[in-house]
Amino acid sequence: MPLLALAAAAPSPAGDASPAARAAEAAREAEAIAAEIGPRPTGSAGEDALEAWVRTRLEEAGWRPRRVAGQLVACRGDGTRLFLAHLDTVPGSPGAVDNAAGVVALVHLARDTAATDLCLAFPRAEEAGLVGSEALAAAWPDPGLGPPAPSGNRLPSLVVALDLVGQGRLSVTGLGPRWSGTWLRWLVDHADVASPYAYRVVSRALPAMERSDHRPFA
Q1: b/e per residue 129-144 (b: at least 16 CB within 10 A)
Q2: How far is CA 116 from the centre of its chain?
Q3: What is the mean pLDDT of each run of 10 residues along the chain (218 residues)?
Q4: What are residue 65's phi and psi, to 5 degrees?
Q5: Domain residue limits, the chain
Q6: Which CATH architecture has domain 17-217?
């Protein structure tokens, strides 16, 4: 898997390009992942290849990624906020939207953000039933991933899973009682988008609608 398009040029620093140019760069990377790695079902060489690419990009951005419960994770500071994007696809799908776009978005966040209280995770086996994120939630907080919140809750206080972000209007699902106007404003302030948000709030009474990697951290 040569990943020719992915390795064709070094990523430009965030300050060297407009938001539109950075978005176009991200789209090209997601398309290259889909075309050159292709389907990434659980346990496949494709899943391994994408994880290796992500690890390299995180290291280039100054992060120190490592495996926790079999999942790739990188943290800064106390890690009270966790963003995730799963690596795998359903069998046979090249997975540009589900979920190369989400993976690339987190890689660009790693490069561009100045946040010091953030963890990024790239779980495996989401399509097999949230297997990777379940293992990660069970292991949290692993030594080095940050202390429990002051409330005593051992899980991060904010968890956002990027999934299917490459098409349609942005929606936010699974907003439980921990969400507040303050958290929503933080999310808006730290997401570089030009269009209005369309929030779709789904109650925890409908767990079938919350099938993404944030769910094990609820």
Answers
A1: ebbbbbbbbeebbeee
A2: 17
A3: 46 64 87 95 96 96 93 87 94 92 93 89 93 91 53 70 73 54 62 40 42 80
A4: -70, 150
A5: 17-217
A6: 3-Layer(aba) Sandwich (3.40)
